[in-house]
Amino acid sequence: AAIYAGLLTTINPGDSTTNVVIPRISIPFQVKKTKLDQLAHAGYVMLQDKARGVTIVSGELATNINSDYDYVSTSIIISDVIQTIREVADPYIGRGLNEATTAALNTAIESALQLKVANGSIVKYGFSVITNRTVNGKGSLTVQLTIVPAFELREINVAAKLALDI
Question: What is the number of alpha carbons within 13 Å of residue 59 lying toward its C-beta?
């Protein structure tokens, strides 16, 4: 558990723990592939022996059936995007809430999200900066965000065809 928790801190947004080799450990017994998949789908961190070493079966999370956050990669991406928006928005706290401030923040968020697309952690995004009603002299903004994460590669299928000549 400690090794996996430490591994989570090293995963880049857009990547997953699926199929990552865990060095210097061994597993005491083998579990059939079907059981590994069932347990991983239930949210258990399962390990298997491969030629490369002991690997993590899947970066799935224990979520309910309607959750959008079924995989570690999705959670890491969303956490990274939200943290980035908080960092980008921080310099605007304490400034006057007017159209110029809102437009500047909108541009800063747009630039930060374009970088996320460029580095491959997200595919598309949509957002809007909404000015909330000022209450007791306290102004606030809401950033509504829609993200299309870079979904992780989960399987590779191979099709073979026999021929006399190509």
Answer: 25
What is residue 45's DSSP assignment?
Answer: -
Q: Which are the contacts of 49, defined by CB distance < 8 A and separation ≥ 6?
A: 27, 30
Phi, psi angle pair for 124, to nearest 5°: -145, 165
Task: Tell me which long-range contacts 4-9 makes (C-beta under 8 A, separation of at least 24).
Answer: 4/45, 4/56, 8/72, 8/76
Q: What is the mean pLDDT of each run of 10 residues along the chain (166 residues)?
A: 88 90 89 91 90 91 82 91 96 90 95 96 94 86 92 84 89
Structure tokens at 43: 């949210």
**What is the spatial distance between Cα 160 and Cα 32, in angstroms, rounded to a whole number?**
26
**pTM above threshold 0.70:** yes
Both tokens assigned to 123? 């595919």
Q: Where do the H-state alpha helices sit in 59-152?
A: 72-89, 99-118
Helix axes 99-118, 72-89, angle to 10 degrees: 150
Residue ranges with strand state E in 22-86: 47-50, 53-56
What is the helix (H) or strand (E) element at residue 141, kind and residue range? Answer: strand 141-149
CA distance linking residue 142 with residue 126, whole number of Å: 14
